[in-house]
């Protein structure tokens, strides 16, 4: 029986259900200290003085002067320090590090910091600090708008969103071999390694090991590099292992969130409903440092015109500086923001035309052979119409749309797509590698791609087993340790199956050639072990220009249509989703139960983004940094999620698979907003809390 | 402080106001109980005290004196619910799983729980990965019910 396409037993084993799986906070080392981060309490200014107002006995204290290499969290740009030297740019910025073996004494230690405060900037629309600007131009938008029969304008907003992985961030740094090993809850161990090499110097003996990770969703992509650096500084200064685990409040206040967005649309259409012009302006609030904002903006802009064909498109994007903690990666990476905007805009355009929303979308949806905003000609694996038709049929959309009108029930939909893998030439620059080892125990996968709940180990082993024609049970997966595994690139961008899985498939095919007709065990007994390492080769037809933003933005796209059914309390504006139908095409599921779990979980996060999850910022810091008043969906808030997985294989992916992880995040918010529109509320912002809905105009 | 932990009598010297969570994790080295928020909202630290699910981050160990405490380690390695959580993918990242399983155990006495019964029993336990559907499938199958609480079609 092939492993691919079947719900094989997961490589996680039973450890997660017995409590034996070890997460960062479960690790204990002899002589271990606890670490604590002292953070800024102002959003902008300069540190004037620091006073340690406690008995220093047994304490290790680290500030920026203890940095042996460069005080820079090395990512896209080199602007963010590990520790403030003088200038404070946001609340909760790390200034000082403490360690002590007694957690109570550590937490009681009082540090008094005096500042010269400066006036902070919180409004992205007032910011002139451009972190990244992007212009995508296709055709002649101004002429097309002037010639259109109808032009519809609108402004759409989305707020911060907090990841709320149930395991807060944390690492343990352990001195070893004159250097340091960092064990931690990380999505991207090689990102942390790069940052640590900058912090300690290129020759420092450093390795990063991923522990079992209690959820990531993008929130453990870049920020763990900061925490790893802090713990490592304390460990090297004290000469002892240091555990640095954030509590929930610190995690919510200090670490990254989804970028808030303001997106403006002008859409020109003909009387018969064809889109002839799309003019889109995207503004993202990047926060105080660059971090990943350029690439979040990039993905956001590329998806900003939605899955629609339009010969005249202009997308202008900017990510700007404000004095808040940097915003960063979060499942969807800019696309949930821009696809929210375009999908609500599309319902408004259909309404303005007096046209059925499904008919309008079907008329304009991208098909094979059409070109996207960047001029990419879509291939056979384009499924916008297929997912739309199935969602409409399955939900009896037209009948419900008619019968719910005037009641407290409502129904709405969204059509969306999501590019798989890094944008444009990103995969070529990444140059990811994967390795298979033939050992005495069998075949071992050695990649830096992390299991963060989505099923990396299992899905990779399925691909290798079938490509190598050996039983799935005989495939091992190495724990990601940067001193052991190949750098397969970060575990982000829906690339772990499609891109890393593809390299592993090729490794397995090469290994099979060397094995001949022998089993791995028989070959090992006769000839000993060997390894096969290969690097990713993107499809040769991909052409992309980073300067003009023209070309094949992604090798392929997943496609989705979500239908949200709601009940609304007309007095309190409470919204209860009753059913969410998620029809999604992502090539082919490698492990159907895991794939379904990605769609169900991503859809629930999308519903939280749509209705519940409001980050309240006060003086540049999250004021509701607790699960008591930042609410994610519970069992009672989450409706039945009806998942439909359609197949349209991508020839460049392993066994036809595309990326999946982020796609489900894009659809729920606009589907909910469009359902609320169907109910009669002009909603152009999420989260659509009762407080917001009470201010929305009635239609 | 004396109480029964997973069927065995224990005597711990912790401060009476120490959180039961810390006593389990640090003093007794049982790290299967997880901390997600420290304020009783997420349920990751759920244990059973005399059969009732509680958040161990909110319980001073003094309150456990004389009771019977069950943590995830008390279920051993072979409880059917543990296997169902893995097989139905009710566990993804796994950090909520021990607490979720212990909360679900409160349904043991309910012969034919409805889906709403399951939702109410688990309402104090947050999961950010699954959207809960797979957890319902695991729990309903454990109670001998049709676990297909939501349909999935692949074509």
Number of helices of chain B: 5
Low-confidence stretches of chain B: none
Largest sheet of chain B: 5 strands, mixed
Q: Measured on Cα atoms, how large is the radius of gyration of chain B?
A: 16 Å
CATH topology type of the largest domain in chain A: Aldehyde Oxidoreductase, domain 4
**Total separate domains of chain B:** 2
Strand fraction of chain A equals 25-35%
Beta content of chain B comes to 5-15%
| Number of helices, counting only DSSP H or I runs of 4 residues or more of chain A | 19
The CATH topology of the largest domain in chain B comes to: Ubiquitin-like (UB roll)
N-to-C CA distance of chain A:
56 Å
CATH H-level superfamily of the largest domain in chain B: Beta-grasp domain
Low-confidence blocks of residues of chain A: none
Mean pLDDT figure of chain B = 94
Strand order of the largest sheet of chain A: 3-5-1-12-9-10-11
Major sheet description of chain A: 7 strands, mixed
Quaternary class: heterodimer
In short:
With 699 residues, chain A is α+β, with helices and mostly antiparallel strands. Chain A is built from 19 helices and 28 strands.
List keywords for this structure.
heterodimer; A: 699 residues; alpha+beta; Aldehyde Oxidoreductase, domain 4; 7-stranded mixed sheet; 6-stranded mixed sheet; 19 helices; 25% strand; B: 155 residues; DNA polymerase, domain 1; 5-stranded mixed sheet; elongated
Q: What can you see in these coordinates?
A:
- The complex is a heterodimer of chains A (699) and B (155).
- Chain A is 28% helix and 25% strand.
- Chain A contains 19 helices and 28 strands.
- Chain A is globular and about 75 Å long.
- With 155 residues, chain B is α+β, with helices and mostly antiparallel strands.
- Chain B has 2 domains: 2-74, Ubiquitin-like (UB roll), CATH 3.10.20.30; 80-142, Orthogonal Bundle (DNA polymerase, domain 1).
- Chain B has a 5-stranded mixed β-sheet, with helices on one face.
- In chain B, β3 and β4 form a beta hairpin.
- In chain B, α2 packs antiparallel against α5.
- In chain B, 54% of the residues are buried.
């Amino acid at each position: 029986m092939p492993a691919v396409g079947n719900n094989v037993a997961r490589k996680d084993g039973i450890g997660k259900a017995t409590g034996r799986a070890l997460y960062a906070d479960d690790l204990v080392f002899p002589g271990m200290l606890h670490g604590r981060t002292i953070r800024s309490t102002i959003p902008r200014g300069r540190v004037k003085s620091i006073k340690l107002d406690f008995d220093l006995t047994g304490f290790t204290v680290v500030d920026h002067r203890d940095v042996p290499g460069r005080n820079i969290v090395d990512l896209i740009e080199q602007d963010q320090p590990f520790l403030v030297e003088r200038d404070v740019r946001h609340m909760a910025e790390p200034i000082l590090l403490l360690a002590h073996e007694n957690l109570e004494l550590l937490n009681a230690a009082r540090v008094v910091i005096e500042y010269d405060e400066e006036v902070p900037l919180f409004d992205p629309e007032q910011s002139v600090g451009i972190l990244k600007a992007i212009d995508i131009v296709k055709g002649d938008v101004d002429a097309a708008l002037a010639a259109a029969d109808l032009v519809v304008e609108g402004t759409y907003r989305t707020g911060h969103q907090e990841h709320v992985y149930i395991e807060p961030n944390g690492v343990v740094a352990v001195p070893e071999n004159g250097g340091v090993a960092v064990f931690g809850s990380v999505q991207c161990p090689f990102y942390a390694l790069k940052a640590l090499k900058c912090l300690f110097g290129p020759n420092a003996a450093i390795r990063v090991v991923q522990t079992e990770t209690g959820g990531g969703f993008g929130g453990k992509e870049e920020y763990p590099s900061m925490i790893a650096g802090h713990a490592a500084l304390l460990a090297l200064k004290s000469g002892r292992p240091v555990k640095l685990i954030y509590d929930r409040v610190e995690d919510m206040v200090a670490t990254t969130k989804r970028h808030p967005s303001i997106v403006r649309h002008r859409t020109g259409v003909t009387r018969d409903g064809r889109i002839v012009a799309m003019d889109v302006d995207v503004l993202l609030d990047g926060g105080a440092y660059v971090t990943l904002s350029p690439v979040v903006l990039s993905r956001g802009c590329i998806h900003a015109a939605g899955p629609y064909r339009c010969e005249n498109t202009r997308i202008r994007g900017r990510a700007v500086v404000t004095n808040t903690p940097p915003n960063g990666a979060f499942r969807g990476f800019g696309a949930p923001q821009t696809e929210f905007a375009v999908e609500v805009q599309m319902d408004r355009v259909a309404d303005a035309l007096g046209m059925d929303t499904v008919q309008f979308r079907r008329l304009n949806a991208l098909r094979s052979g059409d070109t996207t905003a960047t001029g990419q000609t879509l291939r056979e694996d384009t499924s916008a119409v297929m997912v739309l038709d199935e969602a409409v049929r399955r939900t009896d959309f037209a009948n419900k749309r008619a019968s719910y009108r005037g009641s407290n029930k409502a129904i709405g939909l969204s059509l969306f797509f999501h590019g798989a893998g890094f944008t444009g030439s990103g995969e070529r620059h990444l140059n990811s590698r994967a390795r298979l080892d033939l050992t005495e125990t069998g075949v071992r996968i050695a990649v830096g791609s992390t299991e963060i709940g989505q099923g990396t180990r299992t899905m990779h082993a399925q691909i290798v087993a079938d490509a190598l024609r050996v039983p799935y049970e005989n495939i091992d997966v190495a724990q990601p340790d940067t001193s052991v595994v190949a750098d397969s690139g970060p575990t982000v961008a829906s690339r772990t199956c499609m891109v890393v899985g593809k390299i592993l498939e090729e490794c397995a095919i090469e290994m099979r050639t060397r094995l001949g007709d022998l089993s791995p065990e028989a070959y090992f007994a006769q000839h000993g072990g060997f390894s096969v390492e290969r690097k990713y080769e993107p499809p040769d037809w991909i052409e992309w220009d980073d300067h003009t933003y023209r070309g094949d933005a992604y090798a392929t796209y997943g496609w989705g249509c979500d239908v949200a059914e709601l009940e609304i309390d007309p007095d309190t504006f409470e919204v209860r989703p009753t059913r969410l139908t998620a029809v999604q095409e992502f090539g082919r599921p490698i492990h159907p139960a895991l794939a379904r779990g990605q769609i169900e979980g991503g859809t629930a996060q999308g519903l939280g983004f749509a209705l519940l999850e409001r980050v309240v910022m006060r003086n540049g810091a999250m004021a509701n940094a607790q699960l008591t008043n930042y609410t994610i969906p519970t069992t009672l808030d989450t409706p039945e999620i009806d998942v439909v997985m359609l197949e349209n294989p991508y020839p460049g992916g392993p066994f036809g698979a595309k990326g999946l992880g982020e796609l489900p995040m894009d659809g729920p918010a606009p589907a909910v907003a469009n359902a609320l529109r169907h109910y009669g509320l002009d909603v152009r912002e999420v989260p659509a809390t009762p407080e917001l809905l009470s201010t929305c105009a009635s239609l | 402080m004396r109480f029964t932990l997973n069927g065995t009598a224990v005597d711990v010297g912790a401060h009476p106001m120490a959180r039961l969570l810390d006593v389990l994790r640090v003093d007794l080295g049982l790290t299967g109980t997880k901390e997600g928020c420290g304020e009783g909202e997420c349920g990751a630290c759920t244990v059973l005290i005399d059969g009732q699910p509680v958040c161990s981050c909110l319980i001073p160990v003094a309150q456990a004196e004389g009771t019977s405490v069950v943590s995830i380690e008390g279920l051993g390695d072979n409880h059917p619910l543990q296997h169902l959580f893995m097989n139905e993918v009710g566990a993804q990242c796994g950090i909520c799983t021990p607490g979720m399983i212990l909360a679900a155990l409160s349904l043991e006495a309910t012969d034919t729980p409805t889906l709403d019964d399951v939702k109410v029993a688990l309402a104090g336990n947050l999961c950010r990965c699954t959207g809960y559907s797979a957890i319902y499938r695991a729990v309903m199958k454990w109670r001998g019910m049709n676990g297909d609480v939501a349909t999935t079609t692949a074509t």
